């Protein structure tokens, strides 16, 4: 079994080429859209779910059979057809500096895409390195329930609060204590209950050095 190195990669505005336009391609596109990648789908046909995205310009559809030149500008490549020969051709055409994922042959892939839960800046990923995709999906479901939609607002608040704390305090004990205080459980509770004023008042107390 491959021992994968976990990494979050910035692919904003970088070209990702997906060869194949079916169900697997649809899943890959869904996971790539939040990362703001420049997505190119190469396929004679396109899944109904992807058609509106192509029409809206959110993805580029090359309505054709795969050719090696389709990979010229790709940073990442995903071979997602149901034809082994086509996927092999994609792999053979990839350059050494291009990372490729083969949906039909994990052992031939440079990378795999883990099960993902997104809550704004918070990204939770799960992988069993291919040992049990069903388990990965189950854990993803558990995480999605535990870290519900409220976490998007909560983590965005923490992001802004951290910037304010680091601007206010020099490196040292005061900054460290203030950053640790941002993990006070009440902040999440107030976010969940919509008590934003209490959350903001707490932050201002931290910034002025006042006690609660």
UniProtKB/TrEMBL annotation:
Cite the Siroheme synthase central domain residue spans from the record.
119-145
**What pathway or pathways are given for this protein in its record?**
Porphyrin-containing compound metabolism; siroheme biosynthesis; sirohydrochlorin from precorrin-2: step 1/1
Question: What is the top-level taxon of the source organism?
Answer: Bacteria
What are the protein's GO molecular function terms?
precorrin-2 dehydrogenase activity; sirohydrochlorin ferrochelatase activity
For this UniProt record, give its keywords in alphabetical order, as a comma-separated list: Lyase, NAD, Oxidoreductase, Porphyrin biosynthesis
Q: Reaction catalysed?
A: precorrin-2 + NAD(+) = sirohydrochlorin + NADH + 2 H(+)
Catalytic class of the enzyme: oxidoreductase
Which InterPro entries does the entry mention? Met8-like (IPR028161), NAD(P)-bd_dom_sf (IPR036291), SirC_C (IPR042518), Sirohaem_synthase_central (IPR028281), Sirohaem_synthase_N (IPR006367)
Per its record, how is this protein called by name? Answer: precorrin-2 dehydrogenase
Provide the species name. Lysinibacillus parviboronicapiens
Taxonomy of origin reads: Bacteria, Bacillati, Bacillota, Bacilli, Bacillales
